[in-house]
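Inverse folding, one chain.
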């Protein structure tokens, strides 16, 4: 059309295939009556996981106080609860002044990058990444540069490779731990080295820790803020995953390290937070109860717990499949699965995902959606029960049998 409205060029490098064309096609198939097993999004409520009752009650009891706008940083009880959690983890010197509550972590990622970046500034991001990070960097005028988290290394980054990417325009290093999509949980020595690199090069550490308590077996989650002294670290977390409250849209970010060096940065984010007035108030009342109460996630990720058993079912089925391999996820709620090399010429990740949807009515996320240079992986969530997962892998093996 000659009079079509042109869109912003900033969207040119932005993609979010987790809710992209494949997901739209799945909705079309559902409208035609097909039952689609959707494994593309880590959305606990869709698989029968409930938000703890105490959190719902906290919201209900405070609805009368939730009608006015609150402070742009969030209500005091929520921010205070975040401070106490950070102190319990060994993060020193944090007060409510360094905590922001947002409409999910997604909003806070956008605000913190907007406050930090000038046009052309570079941000080091893991590959594979959660694609919101790449999108938010691009939308705020920055340039994503990827450090490889290689499958052969269990998706754990090489700090020396990170250091080699640093240039005059580098402003920040993003760490996603436990990692989405790979499920890797980074060892302490790797995190120590990354923190040292950030401090030595005056870079901001942006640490996405939304899956912080979702770890399995002997994996140890280490908050990277506990390793930062002279640098500046921003830690992100929220209610969506650990507390199964995605729809509440409540996340937070916390500044740690050398807070004096971060004052202007904190004030800039506060200005942006004020421009959007405040985040969802009713959901904020659940934060204090969530962080201070019984941590039900521990039962779910322990042997016998539902998340643990579903993860084990995936591990077992991948081991039995003649076509699939996987580094077992040590954390988070995803499995990042490799398709055998024999299909490399005929079935890349995009075509595999499309055929799996069209022919087997299973929706997965292609691995290249997570900014990988390879096209032989796909991601599924580990949230379904074992029975559904066995059905999924029966269909995957059937599809690959046909291609063999």
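Residues assigned per position:
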């Amino acid at each position: 059309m000659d009079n079509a409205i042109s869109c912003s060029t900033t969207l040119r490098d932005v993609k979010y295939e987790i809710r992209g064309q494949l997901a739209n096609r799945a909705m079309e198939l559902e409208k035609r009556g097909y039952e689609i097993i959707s494994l593309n999004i880590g959305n606990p409520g869709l698989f029968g996981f409930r938000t703890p009752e105490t959190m719902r009650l906290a919201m209900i009891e405070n609805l009368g106080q939730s009608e006015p706008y609150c402070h742009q940083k969030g209500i005091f009880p929520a921010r205070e609860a975040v401070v106490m959690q950070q102190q319990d983890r060994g993060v020193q010197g944090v007060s409510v002044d360094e905590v922001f509550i947002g409409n999910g972590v997604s909003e806070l990622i956008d605000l913190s990058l907007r406050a930090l970046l000038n046009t052309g500034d570079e941000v080091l991001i893991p590959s594979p990444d959660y694609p919101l990070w790449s999108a938010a960097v691009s939308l705020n005028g920055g340039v994503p540069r990827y450090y490889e988290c290689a499958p052969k290394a269990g998706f754990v980054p090489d700090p020396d490779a990170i250091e080699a990417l640093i240039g005059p325009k580098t402003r920040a290093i993003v760490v996603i731990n436990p990692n989405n999509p790979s499920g890797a949980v980074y060892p302490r020595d790797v995190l120590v080295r990354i923190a040292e690199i950030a401090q030595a090069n005056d870079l901001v550490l942006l640490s996405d820790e939304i899956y912080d308590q979702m770890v399995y077996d002997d994996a140890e989650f280490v908050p990277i803020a506990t390793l930062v002294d002279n640098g500046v670290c921003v830690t992100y977390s929220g209610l969506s995953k650990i507390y199964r409250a995605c729809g509440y849209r409540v996340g937070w970010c916390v500044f740690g390290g050398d807070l004096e060096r971060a004052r202007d940065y904190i004030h800039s984010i506060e200005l942006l937070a004020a421009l959007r007035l405040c985040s969802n108030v009713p959901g904020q009342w659940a934060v204090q109860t969530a962080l201070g109460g019984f941590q039900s996630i521990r039962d779910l990720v322990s042997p016998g717990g539902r998340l643990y058993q579903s993860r084990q079912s995936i591990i077992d089925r991948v081991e039995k499949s003649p076509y699939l391999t996987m580094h077992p996820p040590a954390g988070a709620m995803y499995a990042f699965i490799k398709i055998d090399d024999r299909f490399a010429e005929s079935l890349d990740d995009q075509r595999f995902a499309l055929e799996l949807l069209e022919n087997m009515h299973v929706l997965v996320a292609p691995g290249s959606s997570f900014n990988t240079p390879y096209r032989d992986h796909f991601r599924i969530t580990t949230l379904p029960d074992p029975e559904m997962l066995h059905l999924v892998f029966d269909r995957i093996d059937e599809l690959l049998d046909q291609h063999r």
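The first strand starts at residue 37 and ends at 38. The mean pLDDT is 95.
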